[in-house]
Amino acid sequence: MTPQTAVADSMMADHKTSYVGRFAPSPTGPLHFGSLLSALASYIDARVNQGTWLVRMEDLDPPREIHGAAESILQSLRDHGLNWDGEVLYQSERLDAYKALIDLLLSSQKAYTCDCNRTRINSLMGVYDGHCRHKEVVTKPHAIRLRLDCALENSTPESAASFTDLFQGPYGQDLAREVGDFIIHRKDGLTAYQLAVVADDIFQGVTHIIRGSDLLDSSPRQRYLFTLLGAKPPIFGHIPVAINEQGQKLSKQNLAPPIDGKKASHNLWEALNFLQQAPPLSLRSTEVGDIVDWAIGHWQPRLIPARLDLPAEGL
Fold this sequence. Notes:
Elements: H1 3-13, E1 20-23, H2 33-48, E2 52-57, H3 69-79, E3 89-90, H4 95-107, E4 111-114, H5 118-123, E5 143-146, H6 157-160, E6 162-165, E7 169-172, H7 175-178, E8 183-185, H8 193-204, E9 208-212, H9 219-228, E10 235-239, E11 241-243, H10 264-274, H11 288-297, E12 309-311
Parallel strand pairs: 1-2, 2-3, 9-10, 11-12
Antiparallel strand pairs: 4-5, 5-8, 6-7
């Protein structure tokens, strides 16, 4: 057993009585195999720990959304036996909550407006330099950035941004050097992902986040924001993402094919096999409920590889 798997097992065991997990897709297309992996791993881990499993629809970017995608995703989850607890939360219904939080951060000088243009931003090579921190007046349109030099209660920016991932092991970033003050409200008027996801995780009491490793580098920023808001960060676990033959992550942008609900048992078997849970071949053609029950009864998170990506074979 590796050090990170030992930590994973102990951390999971310590939170069996207060586990709230979630799956948070964006309605930009139907569910594909890569999304199914995250949903399945999150669902099983919640059920193994006698926890609650929530579904949240991250519908904050209307230009990218596809009509009917949200219901299509929900139906795919039902087809695969991944039944959530409670009502689905739609981010588009929480815009007032995000605005109130942003106003609070601005009034407490933990955030500031930024009118830097795209040319200047691109010249910074991905690390914002705090140029607009001390401007008294900015022109519109403008973004809003979170300050990384704020005092944190019982923590430092460095410790807030560091953690032990359930699958990837120790991970962290020097946010000031690697990211800089990051955007929490976009110049186009939309709430930024980093703020919305943290606000919703706090609102829903999420304690465990199991998701794809493509979001690993977002976790330090989110942990910093949790800490700044006085909330305990969830436990994070980032599973490998599935890649195609060209080495690209399976995603809607890369035209990953939607999963077929009529082949749900096959899809679940392939997902469990990808996660190296060693499902028996006999489960390929069994009922969906039976394979989900098997997965819950045989869940071994320590077998999930500490890899950022793996080829999706057999699809």
